[in-house]
Amino acid sequence: MSQEQTRTGDTPEYAVTRDGMVGVAAETDAVVGSAGGRRKKGRRRKGAEQSMVPEADFTSYYGRPIVKPSPWEADIPAYLFAGGLAAGSSLIAAGADLTGRPALRRTGRLAAVGALGFSMAALVHDLGTPSRFANMLRTAKLTSPMSVGTWILSMYGPFAGAAAGAEVVSLLPGRYRSAGPLPLASALGRPAGLMAALFAPPVAAYTAVLLSDTATPSWHGAYKELPFVFVGSASAAAAGLGMIAAPTHETGPVRRMAAAGALLELGMEQRMEKSMGVTAEPLHHGKAGRLMRMAKALTAVGAAGTLLAGRSRAVAAASGAALMLGSACTRFGVFEAGQQSARDPKYTVVPQRERLERQGPVRYHQ
Amino acid sequence: MTSLFRENDLWGPLDPSEEAGYGEDRPKRKGFFTDTSICIGCKACEVACKEWNDVPADHFDMLGSSYDNSHSLNANQWRHVAFIEQPKRLGDQESGLRQSVDLGMPVMAPSSPPEEQPPDGAEKPDFRWLMSSDVCKHCTHAACLDVCPTGSLFRSEFGTVVVQDDICNGCGYCVPACPYGVIERRKGPDGAKNVGIAQKCTLCYDRLEAGQTPACAQACPTQSIQFGDVEELRERANTRVAQLNDAGVMDARLYGNDPDDGVGGAGAFFLLLDEPEVYGFPPDPVVTTRDLPHMFRRASAAAAVMLAGAAVSFLGRRR
User: Fold this and answer.
1) Which of B157, B229, B271, B304 is the most exposed place for a label (fewest CB within 10 A)?
2) CB pairs under 8 A, 24+ apart, for A34-40?
3) Are B261 and A3 a contacting pair at CB < 8 A?
């Protein structure tokens, strides 16, 4: 119905009936603000000049958040850490298996399945309706990193589990190892371990997309570098665990991996902060800031210790522990920074305003 | 990874129900045009929505933000009326406010010295009161729907975005995905239905299926909330904003009506009298999944680096 039709006429074309409003009320074309006042049109108001100047500050609705922070709690950053630890451990186990390092292989396979089990528990616990966790499997959606991640974990999990199973069998006293299907379980150790290692890197990397594919300013703003930070963090943590658990004569490769992972994490984190603009701020303030500072210090100390440890098991173990703690702090720090950025409208408004200043509104057809 | 997504899947103009697979006999896309210039802040929409959809009341706080005590859109608030008081005038309108007269009553704050009182006949202070009823935008490219891992959020035949309460497992991913902060996991109150499940406006899916108008639009006494076919509402909005601009209300602008915008155009869009962020809207939102192919490429590269790094670490002879 056009505006013209409703404007005049003896019988109004709208009415309030039992079924509510009928037609379009005349009020819809009330020209609010068109009449009254003593001032001439076009007269410049006080403060009009001020509005011409780009605002240094930003406007908000009573300081209330625009986007909502995720409802996730400590489960999720703990999962990010444990998932990375599992992935890195599977890679180490496969490498140790292929290069004849049995103790390192064993710790890797057992750590992977332990961390994976913890991850699953954390993920289910974080659901609003945990009894419905299996609903994740009723569909596969490429647009949902959580769905993609669920399927990656579903492929990774059984292989990691089978590899750990073979390890458990090898720990049994000899006479039990040949009982029932156990010889088969042992034989599956290597192929399962290699398959787990193949699916492990996506397990470590997808969690960055999980965070970044949101409107949470400090997560989305980090999407270019966050996957590299996370795989570095995962490699360093898993290698750190290997350094703690395996004898030093087997840990040469994991020490190289630890140092490389730590350097990747620190370097990409630095680059990430530069590319994030104003959304990097929450990484430096409050709880997130403390966590990120601890993460950097622990990772740097752990990396240095790794390179200097030599044959000292104690230094290697301490360095490994520092790397693991550093990795955990990185995950909790990034998580907290995102939550903080969502609670403050500044981080939603300012980047969008800056983009508007720079290139105008985002349009599909420019 | 880009090739896994079609050209227009993640953003840009399209008919969302057609893309979702509904056939030629599908109804036209439905939505809201909320003309805030004629909103009187009566909150009939909030009440009607709660009544029809059985949305629990969960707080009775006095927030000290003009007449807004319902805070925001959230799991238990599917329509939210914002109130903004500004020392500006609305078009040519006079506020009718006067400088207060000092009655000599005892006050808590130190009274202003008399010389600061403007003389008689001085300009009266400008004032305008903006009111706006906010609602889920039912985006053409809805991030909440894109990221939902269970398929609980779906696109209805009317082009709207609806949660299936019996499918949602409360993963909470839709909550940070929404660029407007609309959808939320219901936390309470105790005894309410669907606690732990994502909740938001359904554009009264049940009423639409019965050929009815959504409860909020039905209850709106000024038709500030107009319901109809999105295509027609967009034309109506263009006419309306031109009408207000012609009348000298240059603040009037549309928000969310452009199918080329960052969410492919909202199914529920607005006529505003100030910048979007004044009302609590993001100024230029973009659906996060627009960048998803890029994110997947970066993550794939990172995964490759991790695999290569582990391989190289083990290749050395040194023990």
Assistant:
1) B304
2) A34/B91, A34/B92, A34/B93, A34/B244, A34/B247, A34/B248, A34/B249, A35/B92, A35/B93, A36/B92, A36/B93, A36/B94, A37/B89, A37/B92, A37/B93, A37/B94, A38/B94, A39/B92
3) no
